[in-house]
Amino acid sequence: MKTYKAVPRKAMLTSALLAALAGPAWAQDPPDRQRAAADDVDPTTLDTVQVTGIRGSLTSSMNLKRDSQGVVDGIVAEDIGKFPDTNLAESLQRISGVSIDRTSSGEGSKVTVRGIGPDFNLVLLNGRQMPSSNLGNGGGGLSGSRSFDFANIASESISAVEVYKTTRADNPTGGIGATINIKTMRPLESEPVISLGLKAVNDSSNDNLPRTLQGANVTGELSGIFSQTYADGRFGVALSASHQERDSGFNQATVAEGWATFYGNESTDWRALPQPGQGYSDRIQNRPGPTDVYARPQNTAYNVNGVQRQRTNGQATLQWKPADNITTTLDYTHVENKVQQQRSELSVWFNYGPGDSTWTNGPVSAPIIYSEDMVNSDVSMGGMKLATKNAMDSLGFNVDWAVNDALDLSFDVHNSNAESKPDSPYGSAGVLGVAAFVRGKTTVDYSGDLPIINIALPPGGVQASDALVTGSVFQNSYNKSKVQQYQGRGTFRFADYSALDFGVGHTRVENRSASAIMQRDSWGGLGSPADYDDSIWYADDMARYFNAFSGHRDPRLTGQFLVFDFDRLRERAGQIAANGEPPCPTCYLAPTEYTEDIRTTETSRSAYLQYRTTFDGSMPLHVAAGVRYEQTEVESTALVRVPTSINWGSANEFNLGYAAEGTFIGGKGKYDYVLPNVDLKLDMSDTLALRGSYSRSIGRPGWTQIDSGRRFDNIVRTQGGTGSRGNPGLEPLLSDNFDLSLEWYYGESSYASLGFFRKNIKNFISNTIVRDDSAGLHTPVGGTYWNEALAAGCGVTDMPCIRDYIFTHHNGDPGVTATGTNSAGQLTGTIVGQPGDPVAGFDITLPANQRSDHLDGWELSVQQVFGQTGFGLAANYTKVRSGLTFNNLSLGDQYPMIGLSDSANLVLFYEKYNWQVRAAYNWRDTFLNGIGGQGPNPNYTDAYGQLDLNISYALSDQLTLSLEAINLTDETMRTYSRHTNMLRYATQTGPRYMFGVRYKF
After folding, report:
1. Is the predicted pLDDT of residue 186 greater than 80, yes or no?
2. What are phi and psi of 363, to 5 degrees?
3. What is the CA radius of gyration of the chain?
4. 65-to-33, 70, 158 alpha-carbon distances in Å
5. pLDDT in the model for residue 28
6. Alpha helix locations (H) across 422-530?
């Protein structure tokens, strides 16, 4: 017989306590559990429970996990205005299965959950889908990412963060790894408070920079919270605001342009090592074997970076209860994050030429020592100036209506925008190349954590009198995302206390990503060194700025470089005439007209039903079974250049001609899915629970993958051309998710859990090639003039003969223009394909849903409070495995899972006698963070661990002092390709210290 099992008094207390602190599971849901608990529990009992502090936060997080449907983890604020970490991402990494990506300056930014990367985790704010905007790498290019940047949000106004690892019918779709709900304070659900916080921040990395790149040694953070109720608790106002300034730096050793990769027997690619007995093969020690994979570097560099950031957050919430059973909420959130960065570098470029080298053993062979012979080559000392602004504004309105004892209804609407754009007259990022052409033989030792660059230089080394501007790149990038969402939901409780959840939703997401580049290719030098005042530069030594790496004092290291005044040098470059061209001031400003512009709209409609009940017995079984229907329509338009002709300009080179103006091309797609879920929880005893879940979820493709634009590569061959386009008809990734966990709650604040999860994922996206002649471009190859030349005796591959014949017999005819004779005696000019000539075909690369695979893993969590001693710990370990890994021995295209890694956390704390001390260590194993750098090469981030420390002391009930240390042991980060010697990035930041004062009025 099915009966309703009353919630134990202790669980009622837990649920009511959690609701009071953090609100219901979705801030908009009718609080039926809270009301039920309130009916049965003496309120005076609740008033005696203290929930603040580290122990209170961990206890509330444990109870969230215990009482939730499905597998849910979370973090609850230690007190109003006091989240465990100042950065939300760094707080989330304490949860089992959650790992974070860090910015170059070491701050937590994006999250990976159970091996699923940031693009496939959905972030909500109070149950609402949030827009995300990002600029491309270095502030330039198009961004196709859907990932949410947690660095934009301050933690002071956050009451809780919930991580839903299993999918429920009443959750919005889009998260395969997890759905992450950020919850903010609600005045009618919180105690009245007025709180003010002040912090002084010292980032030690700021001191480890050239003087002109440094910011302030101490910067400030200010935050305040006001929450009050009026009219006997029927009207509430909550205001929160924070402003943070942080001046920091990071220094990197890089092979930014990547590694040219070959098999040992490669003999046709000019970049490859010579085969035994050929060329300079006698200078190669331990040469890679015929079947080994090896790689040669394109460049190696050191750079130093000064970063300034200003982050402002504000939120206003108004709540009104016109009746006991109706609550209305109006809230507004504003986020602004400005970043300025300036970089100076010392780099050497290689030409894949002769030199000495020593290699590791295979099957992946990497250089130990690598050198190339140079004579008066360039010592590159470029610089960059970047300034971007990220902003988000969200306005929402919600009504909760308890219609009667059986029916609750709610309605929610919000309109949110996120925008990323340049914050400088130079665009989002500007790069000035600078060089002194004095470089001789160049050698790099790649065997250590820090590559050791040694350059043969003239006496005195690099001098200001040798330096001049070379090439330059100024970028203008833009990304805006807008979300309009309507949600209606309800719960109907039956007489047997079972319940039916139901709801409908409509979500419209508009995304625009655009970019333009101004590039001047004067890489041989702009003017002469005499054109530049020597006072623009000053000398410095890179070895000073890498003291966290062993090897920075290596006597072989050539660290001398020139730092320059970016603004002054940019202005001077615009005044110099060179190579027969007049001065070009506009060449050193970002263009204002976009050349790439992708605009995409996704419209989703959804409906769901979910039935919840409990089967009583010696071991009560809680069941929730639901289904969600989701339909999505995609519409994309993209600005593309319009090719109008194929022009044969030299013997072996055909190029496309383009219309003066681009045009927008549109495309559409549509998909719909039925997404079921079943969640089971068996209470084996009062302290032991067995949990099992099945669900189906979707993860939407990246914005550039569903781009409708078709783009052609400029160079065409005799057999046709190549190009690429997106595919608005892509299906989302589809995942069948299985979870099984055992949870033991053996103390008031202590528990242990072991969970297994598996995800069977379909519709993985990889590239395919289709032949397309719809552009209707006529090629001279096989045309009338071409065939005449063949009939006159020219060979089919003898291009100079064919061209000479056409110029001799058809100069002045349609499409034929002869201009002269080159040094080889061949006629020069242009031959353009004409109507009647063959239509060229193009091999177009486009994304398609082609693959399936799986991942599975284990999560182990332990939380232990040692009685009334004040001591406690929280620890977890996650192990993930999958077939979606990268094969280092394959040189072809691969499509592995990005971000897949094991992780672990350990938090030790003491809380007693007004003291709070928390030490948190987080570790993440080596993982693949992307593909790129001279073709389909992997980029692995090396295993990384970080220790953070937080100490606070309450001088009174109102006043608390705190001291925080981030990255206390000064850890460094390292990224490499197929072998640890194949460095991509080695990054040094530094510890960050914060002294804070918080006062509650």
Report:
1. yes
2. -75, -20
3. 31
4. 15, 9, 19
5. 39
6. none
Instruction: Tokens for 425, please give them.
Output: 């007259």
Distance CA 209, CA 841 (A): 53
DSSP E strands, 204-233 = 219-230
Q: What share of the chain is helix, strand, coil (3-state, %, to 5)?
A: 10, 55, 35
Contact 60, 50 (CB under 8 A): no
Contact between 125 and 315 under an 8 Å Cβ cutoff? The reply is no
In this structure, the strands spanning 235-254 and 299-323 are antiparallel
DSSP element (H, E) containing 744: strand 733-744
Q: Which amino acid is at 94?
A: R
Closest of 262, 252, 306, 260 to residue 451, by C-alpha = 252
| Strands laid side by side in the 364-365 sheet | 259-263, 293-297, 364-365
- Is residue 311 classed as helix, strand or coil in its secondary structure? strand
Strands 653-658 and 299-323: unpaired
SS (H, E, C) 124-192: EECCEECCCCCCCHHHCCCCCCCCCCHHHCECCCEEEEEEECCCCCCCCCCCCCCEEEEEECCHHHCCC
Quote the mean pLDDT of the chain: 89
- Cα(332)–Cα(416) distance, integer angstroms: 9
d(CA 151, CA 91): 11
Distance (Å) of CA 918 to CA 97, 352, 432, 873, 921: 21, 52, 45, 9, 10
Measured at the alpha carbon of residue 983, what is the angle toward residues 980 and 986, in degrees to the nearest 5? 110
**Which of 312, 27, 329, 415 has its CA nearest to residue 184?**
27
Alpha-carbon span 885 to 898, nearest angstrom: 9
DSSP state of 567: H
pLDDT tens digit sequence for 554-605? 999 999 999 999 999 999 999 998 767 789 999 999 998 898 899 999 999 9
Q: Which residue has the tokens 């001031």?
A: 585
Where residue 40 falls among pLDDT bands split at 50, 70, 90?
very low
Place of tokens 């205001």: 239
Q: Is 193 helix (H, G, I), strand (E, B) or coil?
A: strand
Residue in 601, 599, 570 with CA at minimum distance from that of residue 587: 570
Closest CA to 921 of 976, 868, 877: 877
The answer to whether 903 touches 97, Cβ cutoff 8 Å, is yes
Strands 179-184 and 122-125: parallel
Distance CA 428, CA 141 (A): 10
Helix (H) or strand (E) segment spanning residue 671 = strand 663-683
Q: Count of alpha carbons within 13 Å of 820, Cβ hemisphere only?
A: 3
Q: Are 186 and 23 in contact (CB under 8 A)?
A: yes
User: Is the distance from CB of 68 to CB of 29 less than 8 angstroms?
Assistant: no
Pairing of the two strands 733-744 and 688-699: antiparallel
Please indicate whether residue 36 or residue 322 has the higher confidence score (pLDDT): 322
Residues 929/939, Cβ–Cβ less than 8 Å:
yes
How far is CA 115 from each of CA 104, 560, 856, 859, 879, rounded to the nearest angstrom? 21, 42, 9, 12, 9
**304-348 pLDDT, tens digit each:** 999 999 999 999 999 999 999 999 999 999 999 999 999 999 999
pLDDT (0 to 100) of residue 81: 64
Question: What is the distance between the alpha carbons of residues 967 and 656, in angstroms, rounded to a whole number?
Answer: 53
DSSP notation for 851-910: EEEEEEEEEEEEEEE-TTSSEEEEEEEEEEEES----TT--S---PPTT---EEEEEEEE
**Residue 375's Cα: distance from chain center in Å?**
41
Tokens at residue 440, please?
């001789």
Q: CA triplet 79, 84, 86: central angle to 5 degrees? A: 110
